[in-house]
Design goal:
Layout (H helix, E strand, L loop, with lengths): L1 H17 L2 E8 L5 H9 L7 E4 L6 H4 L5 H4 L7 E6 L8 H5 L4 H20 L2 E9 L2 H13 L9 H6 L3 H15 L6 E5 L3 H15 L35
Parallel strand pairs: 1-3, 1-4, 2-3, 4-5
């Protein structure tokens, strides 16, 4: 993992130096490990060269816009990597299954996505779409872990509880989405996410292969430091944090 994270930094430098634009989509069912995977991918990256986008429920203004508009606004600029923790594919998944959009809206979305992504890729965007797949048994274990662990309960929501009764519907929606939006210019890549550590390594290696340009930052010699003052400690009058540890 550490070696891949260092290599990811070299890829980021290549993206910056080459003026490339990279968008990586992380999709999957609940507990598939999207957020944790993004954390590992970005752990050593220069924060000035990447962003994580995790959009919440649309505002009233956003709900009145073209559906894709708020996602298009988050697209990377030259030399930037954007990691989407869920994406416009919400419409084909949770929105469709939970009734947050109509069937007509879901159908319009599925028809429009291939053309939209074709335009983005034709304009030079490197678009990578990952679906993290977790089995029903492992998902159940992880849901129970969230319910039992006070530090993870925040991950559970009322929608998660309701979605538990619609597992078959989610599976049907997933399959149609993958089949209709898996295209030569923007293919889907499925990651077996039952073993989270293995999934992160496999995904990171695949992503490294898709971004071949790399650039190692040159070693920078430190200039000689100037003379120190006689006392370089902060003023004693300023309150210090108690050293309890």
């Amino acid at each position: 993992l550490a070696g891949m994270q260092a290599e990811m930094l070299a890829r980021q430098a290549g993206v910056r130096h080459g003026g490339m634009r990279v968008a990586v989509l992380f999709e999957g069912g609940e507990t598939a490990g999207k957020g944790g995977t993004i954390q590992r991918v970005s752990a050593e990256l220069n924060p000035r060269g990447y962003r994580v986008v995790a959009l919440g429920v649309p505002s009233e203004r956003e709900a009145g816009q073209w559906y894709f508009q708020r996602y298009i606004e988050q697209m990377p600029s030259r030399g930037e990597i954007v990691l989407f923790d869920r994406s416009w594919y919400n419409r084909a998944g949770v929105e469709r299954v939970m009734g947050f959009c109509t069937e007509d809206q879901a159908e319009d979305f599925l028809r429009a996505v291939p053309d939209l992504e074709r335009m983005l890729v034709s304009d030079g965007l490197i678009l990578v779409k990952y679906w993290l797949e977790v089995s029903a048994a492992v998902q159940e274990e992880r849901f129970q872990e969230r319910a039992d662990d006070p530090t993870k309960r925040w991950k559970l929501s009322p929608i998660d509880f309701e979605a538990r009764t619609k597992y078959a519907d989610y599976t049907t929606a997933r399959d149609e989405m993958l089949e209709r939006t898996d295209t030569p210019h923007a293919p889907w890549y499925i990651v077996d996410a039952d073993d989270q550590k293995r999934a992160r390594l496999n995904l990171m290696q695949h992503l490294l292969d898709l971004i071949p340009q790399r650039r190692r930052e040159k070693k920078v010699p430190l200039p000689k430091r100037g003379p120190l003052p006689k006392d370089n400690t902060p003023p004693a009058s300023v309150t210090r944090v108690p050293e309890r540890w």
